[in-house]
Amino acid sequence: HVTTVNDYLARRDAEWVGPIYQALGLSVGILQMQMPDAERTRAYRCDITYGTASEFGFDFLRDRLKISGSKGQAAPFWAAWGNGDGSANPEVTVQRGHHFALVDEADNIFIDEARTPLVISGATRPASKEESVVYLWADNLAKSMRPNEHFTLDEKKQKIELTPLGLEVIRWSEPPHGPYSHAMDKLHEHVERALHAHFRFTRDQHYMVEKDKVVIIDEYTGRRMPDRHWREGLHQAVEAKEGVEISLAADHAAQITFQNYFRLYKKLAGMTGTAAQNWIELRRVYKLWVVCVPTNRPVIRQNWPDRVFPTEDAKFDAVVVEVIRLRDLGRAVLIGTRSVEKSEKLSERLHEVGVDHQVLNARQHELEAQIVAKAGEPGRVTLATNMAGRGTDIKLGPGVAEAGGLHVIGTERHDARRIDRQLVGRAARQGDPGSAQFFVALDDELLEALGQKTQEKLRNLGASEADLKWQKFLPKFLKAQKRVERRHRRQRLDLMAYEKQRQEILKDLGADPYVD
Length: 516
Description:
Radius of gyration: 25 Å
CATH topology of the largest domain: Rossmann fold
Number of helices: 17
CATH class of the largest domain: Alpha Beta
Helix content: 40-55%
CATH superfamily of the largest domain: P-loop containing nucleotide triphosphate hydrolases
Structural class: alpha/beta
Number of domains: 3
Largest sheet: 7 strands, parallel
């Protein structure tokens, strides 16, 4: 199994390398989203199967459900490989077992997405008016609540807690009654989810609204994830916030995390340009060694020092000036943003000064191939979210290399330094010239990791219009980034320990740990 970042790359890579495999007598199959079972089975019967990690994972879960349905819930969890050699029962399943996986952009799957659950849920349906009442009530109440008065928000722990005054407000707020009334502790949970929706989740950053539906945006890739839903009522809280039709929370039929799915393979390997700093975790979790391979040609990219600004507006003004300067030199420019919202805001600034540019974000995902194909042309300016990070190979047009190559501008530091390096890695590929630089501001989202008081102090300092040497605040960004990386690493290791214990208990009971 060869896993890639998205369907486009799975098909592209399989078609590029397919003739070589076929010349060696090996067959190649391709998995694509919404492919019927008959075609999936044919793809898995090939010697080599290309697809995304989520397609492989969901096929595994669907196979588990088929086995549970045919043998009953009492079927042991090893029933999927009933012949004992790692192969699945071909009469029931589409997969043939988990012998070897080769993972492209391995750190994205093994680290960034490790905690992401792949969930197959029962069919969702629109909630009735009576079922929606509690979500709408909680949403209205959350709108009236104020931070540090009715609740506290701990950005470092991503946690919201109601204060005594907040609890009193809920008690006297005329909560839903009748057949859809809830116990007081359940009402507290609904309000907390509504507060998360209003104060932690931002439209066009964490999600977008498309055809009156809430669609999650993957924070690491910038792509739409229409098949994903937040759990435990959070998705319904966001739907209530946005005023769209509330869907009824579905029961989960089967689930597995990426971390646990890839630990099923007998042999596992991967490739990425940003794994060396996480070698200890990869060894501990996946029993893999990290080997650094020299590049085919020397990397001659120039990494210019970060520039620090007091506010986002000042930062964007400087980005526009730099883009015009580089464009006039005949260079291609790629600008990276963390969210759809920020990409559209910066796009407006570029339009105001007459800079022609292309925007690549979750709204324009259908045009990805065309936009990337032209991103290396002379004077071309491309504004993108993380979609233009992993797996994106921008070919330089005529004269661009002589002008200095592609220049990458990062408009914020990400939670993980590896994601920054992925963006920077779009420049100076295959021995070409290129350069990269980050522009950061004191009101950037990353600084939330330093705690609310520190963040507010820095934000107020930036807004004060004081004449300070802003560069001296650069270590704050590196400190925040390291703090977030440590928190996420602890969460991934805790998840592994929890899942290991859970599976051992279910194995002793003869139950399937993947089917709810």
